[in-house]
Amino acid sequence: MKHLILPEEAPFSPEQREWLNGYLSALLSPYEGADKVPGIPVTIAWGSQTGTSETLAKKFSKLAAKSGVEPTVVDLAKLDHASLSQLKHLIIITSTYGDGEAPDNAQAFYDFLHSEGAPSMEHLNYSVLSLGDSSYPDFCKCGIDFDTRLKTLGAKALIPRLDMDVDFDDDYANWTSDILALFGSVAADDESEEEEGFTKKSPYTAPILKLYNLNAEASERETTHVEISLEGSGISYEAGDALGVYPINDAELVDTLITQLEFNSEADLDGKTLRHALTENYEIRNITLPLVKAWAEKADSDELKILTEAEDRGPLNNYLWGREIIDLVKEYPIDFESAQNFIQMLKPLAARLYSIASSPKAHNDEVHLTVGVVKYESNGVARKGVCSTYFSERTELANPRVFVHENKAFRPPVDSEAPMIMVGPGTGIAPFRAFLEEREATEAKGENWLFFGNPYEKVDFLYKEQLEELSENGYLHKLTLAFSRDQAEKIYVQNRMIEEGKTLFQWLENNGHFYVCGDASRMAKDVDVALHQIIEEHGGMSAEDAAAYVNEMKNSKRYCRDVY
Ligand SMILES: Cc1cc2nc3c(=O)[nH]c(=O)nc-3n(C[C@H](O)[C@H](O)[C@H](O)COP(=O)(O)OP(=O)(O)OC[C@H]3O[C@@H](n4cnc5c(N)ncnc54)[C@H](O)[C@@H]3O)c2cc1C
Ligand SMILES: NC(=O)c1ccc[n+]([C@@H]2O[C@H](COP(=O)([O-])OP(=O)(O)OC[C@H]3O[C@@H](n4cnc5c(N)ncnc54)[C@H](OP(=O)(O)O)[C@@H]3O)[C@@H](O)[C@H]2O)c1
Ligand SMILES: Cc1cc2nc3c(=O)[nH]c(=O)nc-3n(C[C@H](O)[C@H](O)[C@H](O)COP(=O)(O)O)c2cc1C
To answer: How many C-beta neighbours within 10 Å does residue 529 have?
Structure first.
């Protein structure tokens, strides 16, 4: 019989190898002497907000199926809690959202697992693959919490949890071979899984057709409407998807860094000048936790070490808020000796995602974005977000390199007659412009209701004319506005939702689909609270019943969020 012993190339310590070989023998002993070992059933459950973990789970499942495993892929929202007692092998692939929270589809499972009544998991062998972004203070927290809790409940980790940062290709490849080695298989060739066309790894350089500010000149805000041509690229997308954009750094910031570090801007770095590499290839603005930890060591700064080593992240977060790499350079100088040594500490310049603001059915071969320009002052210095100010200031330097980031969990209702309720203040309006254009282009019969808010009606009413036209054409049945600063007391979209609670509940009861887009940290949370309140009040439900109602909306894909 094949596969009874871990392959030699499997990268485990002698102790792990001994345990795993024992485990494999026990697992496969019923098939001793058989010609063919049946695939080992493995459940792969994903938690995902914008589709990355979902895609990895499906990709891994295909690979696993070719490698002698019998995989079942399941949305964590649909993982039957009662069936957990029957599962032997569970792989969880999850991202982290908000401030260290579970993605929406994983929240109910998260709550169940962390509840007092969570069952013993002693029968379960599991592994957690967690996706995150080390620029967030709670890096990969959801995956970490699942791992910790499963262990506490008695489950056995097959291989240690892997926390993956944004650039995860190598980590993911190593993890797949480790986990498949564990089941006595060698990962089959993954080449067939390579995506075709333009992708995150090979983006499309796209011409810009139009750029203009959607706010009036007198506004304190700037929101760039971007129209990009996809003609001839073969790229397609759907309303609800996002566009990934690789930006170009600000030349002034590049110069300041080079001058401050006393480097030669023309120094050669693998065939590129230092200036070129810093302009196009590296994140030279935002500080990540690994960077500040490495900086503390290299600068041998006790002050930074105390901050980075403290269990309480509060003081470190306070220090980092509003600071950039240039501040570390100035406040904790390091003698790098060569530009290469500095570059090695930096992360590759990451693509930024933007919710697509156009329907491909209304704008053939084009993709539109609504980009809020990030500019602020901190510690007496003017700061500029990399990608948003690339669109507002630097597109003449080079066209953007783009790719489509599919978001299957955020789509207009499949049932074209189902009502849509969309809550999208600020740049959160972007995907709803796309949804409304889609409904108009397809002559969908369902009613549409948009909640929009921004500071001042006069200068910040994004897409006003187009929304009015959609109303006249019968595709925007209700437009509810919350201009926060037009009166003494702030009025936000959730205040308007409460005012309209009775009607809103009727729409929900009538198969209404509820969508939220925009700020994750405050708005989306407050809107969620308002939604529960409306269901309680107008549905005559207890808090628990309202929560169950909302969960059911999530499970049936009638409560979808695209928040950032
Ligand atoms: C799925 C998804 C969809 C998105 N859709 C849109 C969209 O449609 N429109 C849109 O505009 N954005 C959208 N975003 C956000 C977008 O991806 C970028 O994060 C945003 O444009 C900022 O990028 P940047 O490169 O300009 O700023 P960066 O250089 O990345 O800087 C942003 C960082 O600056 C810091 N910062 C920002 N403001 C302040 C402040 N006032 N004080 C101190 N520090 C501050 C924060 O650390 C913040 O993380 C979306 C994000 C996601 C994940
Ligand atoms: N991750 C990133 O790098 C990044 C980059 C850009 C934007 N963002 C996030 O995306 C959000 C969207 O930015 P935006 O400029 O389009 O709009 P925004 O800042 O969300 O503002 C839009 C409207 O929402 C109001 N608002 C403020 N707090 C609210 C709350 N708790 N509930 C409901 N409404 C609230 C604002 O009012 P007032 O301003 O009058 O209070 C304003 O009228 C930003 O807030 C930011 O958090 C993130
Ligand atoms: C609004 C927002 C909040 C996030 N919060 C965290 C976080 O707290 N910790 C973390 O490690 N990653 C965080 N991330 C990064 C995501 O986990 C990461 O991009 C992941 O690859 C997304 O996977 P998904 O598409 O499967 O949801 C956040 C991303 C966004 C857009």
So the answer is: 11
| Cβ atoms of residues 356 and 431 within 8 Å | yes
Per-residue burial over 22-59, b if 16 or more Cβ lie within 10 Å, else e, is eebeebbeeeeeeeebeebebbbbbbbbbbbbbbbbbb
Give pLDDT, residue 4.
46
Residues of the chain with confidence (pLDDT) below 50: 1-4, 192
CA of 107 to the centre of ligand 3 (A): 14
How far is the C-alpha of 53 from the C-alpha of 126, rounded, in Å?
17
Q: Specify the residue for token string 């075709």.
A: 196
The tens digit of pLDDT for each residue in 184-214 reads 665 666 554 566 789 999 999 999 999 999 9
Counting ligand 3 atoms within 8 A of each CB, the residue from 53, 94, 136, 161 with the most, and so the one to mutate, is 136
CATH code, domain with 465: 3.40.50.80
Host domain of residue 267: 251-343
Q: Does 1 fall in a domain?
A: no
CA of 536 to the centre of ligand 1 (A): 34
Examine the fold and report which residue of 343, 367, 390 is the final residue of a domain before the chain moves on: 343
* Number of domains the chain contains: 4
Nearest CA to ligand 1 atom 21: 388
- pLDDT of 69 reads 87
pTM for this structure?
Answer: 0.91
Asked whether residue 439 falls in the same domain as residue 554, the answer is: yes
Same domain (yes/no): 54, 141:
yes
**d(Cα 257, Cα 227) in Å, to the nearest integer?**
32
- Ligand 1 pocket, residue 374 CB under 6 Å: yes
Ligand 2 surroundings by CB, under 6 angstroms: 372, 374, 425-427, 453-455, 484-485, 490, 492-494, 518-519, 521-523, 526, 564
Name the residue of 517, 523, 529 to mutate for ligand 2: max ligand atoms within 8 A of Cβ: 523
Ligand 1 pocket, 523 CB below 6 A?
A: no
